[in-house]
Amino acid sequence: MANLPLPARISGYDLGMLVLDRPFLRHGRRWVCRRAHGRTLEVAIGTGLNLTHYPADVQITGLELNPRMAAHAQRRADRIGRRLKLTVGDAMSLPHPDDTFDAVVCTFALCGVGDEQVVLDEMLRVLKPGGDLLLSDHVRARPRPLRWLQRLADAITVPLNGEHWTRRPLHLLRSRNVTIEATHTRAFGILESVHARKPA
Ligand SMILES: C[S@@+](CC[C@H](N)C(=O)[O-])C[C@H]1O[C@@H](n2cnc3c(N)ncnc32)[C@H](O)[C@@H]1O
Prior knowledge:
Layout: H1 12-33, E1 39-43, E2 59-64, H2 67-80, E3 84-88, E4 101-107, H3 116-126, E5 127-138, H4 144-161, H5 169-174, E6 179-186, E7 191-197
Parallel strand pairs: 1-2, 1-4, 2-3, 4-5
Antiparallel strand pairs: 5-7, 6-7
């Protein structure tokens, strides 16, 4: 990966994660990463917080829009001795050919991309037939009062920073040509992980 800006030693994102990761997000990271295998693409890899959760034999390719986040991910990979092939690019138009990866992972990022349907279709395009799509994110809650609060949050955060609280990738996957192998929800359904498989 050439010409990335040198990041500060700790990113603001990682500082926020010191509070959020262990109680809320780490379970989802582990759930998806332990299902990854072979050539795996992680879309919107951020600062690489999933890197420590992959089995040792997974070959990881990362894609990230923000060059500073990507530089943090590269530095984390170097620090823990994990080989990482990293590209700065847009998940809405993945630079990889069709049918390339055995698994595609995306965590806590479909809530913030411009169009999650386009990104889902791109991830399915680059998966090999029989490959595994592994997602974890915060999604629309089950209890109605929480959904109202999430709609309220959307009204503020969508215009502010593009963060959506009422998306649910699982619903979108049900209308696509995939098999849902497993799902896992926590925290009133707000945190959802999905394992979907592209037909062989
Ligand atoms: C909340 S962070 C999650 C990072 C990481 N996946 C994790 O689990 O810690 C969302 C990440 O998505 C990246 N992102 C947003 N839109 C993107 C896009 N269109 N293509 C690639 N990355 C994108 C952001 O730059 C950011 O690093």
